[in-house]
Write the structure tokens for this entry.
Amino acid sequence: MILLGADHGGVALKAAIKRYLEENEIPYRDFGTNDTDSVDYAPIAAQVAHGVAGGQAEKGILCCGTGIGMSIAANKVKGVRASVCSEAYSTEMTRRHNNANILCLGGRVIDEAKAVELTKIFLETEFEGGRHQRRLDEITAIECGEL
Ligand code: RB5
């Protein structure tokens, strides 16, 4: 299960990602928005972030104009590791090293084909664990006020 969300700046990317998920029979839940009327990104990021952090889904994808607002908002939720990516290498590495659980994309930065390419990488790349788990534990310690 993949949780999806977008504001008006990311709605076209989300539509392309939904088509990809449907073609590949990957289940998703869409928290909107679904048109180009202006809408605030933070409440949408919150729904996806709480869903991922709460175990409703393993991963989420959030799209806005740059991906940045969505990532800042999503990363306020404990347990979320949201990464803004616009190219393949960072997308692969944020799965392999950071175990990112939310991918944030910018509709004014990348086109729909790139969004689908990065979605595929994000969904298919495994976390490496090992020394990277220790680093994620340190991030959790920051969340808990221990660092
Ligand atoms: C909306 O205009 C825009 O600010 C938003 O989509 C996003 O890019 C914010 O980070």
